[in-house]
Input
Amino acid sequence: MGIVQRDSIRIMVISYLGAAIGYLNKILLFTNFLTAEQVGLSNIIISIAAVYAQFSGLGMTGVTIKFFPYFKDKEKHHHGFLFWTSLLSLFGFLLLTIIFLLFKSPIINYYSEKSPLLVEYSFYVIPLALATVYYNLLEVFLRSLMKTVVFSLVNEIVLRLMISASILLFAFKLVSFHEFVIIYVGVNCSATLILLVYMAYLKQLLFKPEWSSTTKRFFKIVLHYGSFAIVGNMSYILMNNIDALMVAAMIGLKDTGVYTTVFFIATVMLIPYRSLARVASPLVAQFWKNREMKKMHDLYKKVTLMSLITGCFIFLGLWVNIDNIFHFIPDEYASGKYVFLFLGIGRLFDMATGINGIILVTSKKYRYDLLFTILLIGVMIALNLAFIPTYGIEGASFATMLSIITLNTLRIIYIWSVFGMQPFDFKSVWVILIGVFTLGVIYFIPPILNVYADMIIRSLICLVLYAAPVLWLKLSEEVNENAIKILKAAHLYPPEGRK
Output
């Protein structure tokens, strides 16, 4: 747990700094200098590129997480692993691009009525998707090498600062909106180039086409796993983007702008979990390789409890201040209040179930996770078709919440029944009870006219009522250790002799 805790703390700090910059971009700059329709376009092309990239990647990110420990040998160029996965990803991208160009008319027609601006800029998705394919591949490769901090810095800080600069160019009328879109796409592509430079610096840019005995032995196994992983990856990325894609087609880019902006606010909750998961995923693969089930179970429980504690705290902090957050953006975004509530509950449940997805997809039973995810995609599409026409973006968020809860419940039950591992105990119950009590108390506090004072008071009460008992009860040793480190760094923790 040591390396997980150390690197996850570093990544978490980077992620929260990135979240602050992201808040500046998504909540303040985008909403106040772009129209809601333009915001919707900027966000939806990223979502489409993410889906495009996952279809193109042919499951190579999942293959890397599961199989790279068997290939890892720098002196032997990792047996050509990076070359072959890159080549297969390129083949997948070219194949999907041909399919996209052949069927562009029905795709464009689907969005032409409600989102004509998206149709106008649809071809910008292609270069963005190519960059995303290789960013995903390089990211997971670096993660497997336990080099998790730099790519987090690039994605969370560097990329978002460049996005800030591009928005300001438009805000000060130095570029037109068309030029802004070109710059915006270019900035998002640049992260891949930065990772390539970093890989070269590490001397890990090993594209030599090795064909060793290890490569021969695993090649068919990798292709077989990849054929399942590609569908699994596609299903996962669709689950995270299908709601926004359907809102764009069924309602329009203006509502998409509201939905994706609120979606970003809810995504902030996942920062602690993603920081832990990035570091934990290669360890889980290693535990499977070495058959270290006890270590995996311990990791499962610790990551789950840490994620639940931090997730509850962030959800409470955001929800009790949700009206204050909407105070800083145009009134047309106020319709997203309950969108956040549903998305936030879904994200909290996702965090509260720990690394169940990572455990399942890196096991020999990975096909079942694929089955669960495909089933949920069908359910999610059906729920969105049912709820969006009647309830709009609130219906889309409710459909997403139900889908996340259902998928993770299936994963927990399956892992428990097959591997005998489940991540919960009475400490988890205590966390939930403390969270409900905190929310109940703050609910009865009347709003203060000054938005800044109201935000500070609610946040402090949340901190005292929630964080204090969690730390005092020592529900998580790792959370307490991290809290002490933060207090020491802020010179708020008494010296050893004065406790």
Remarks:
- The longest helix spans residues 366-419.
- The chain has 20 helices and no strands.
- The mean pLDDT is 82.
- Residues 69 and 286 are 7 Å apart (CA to CA).
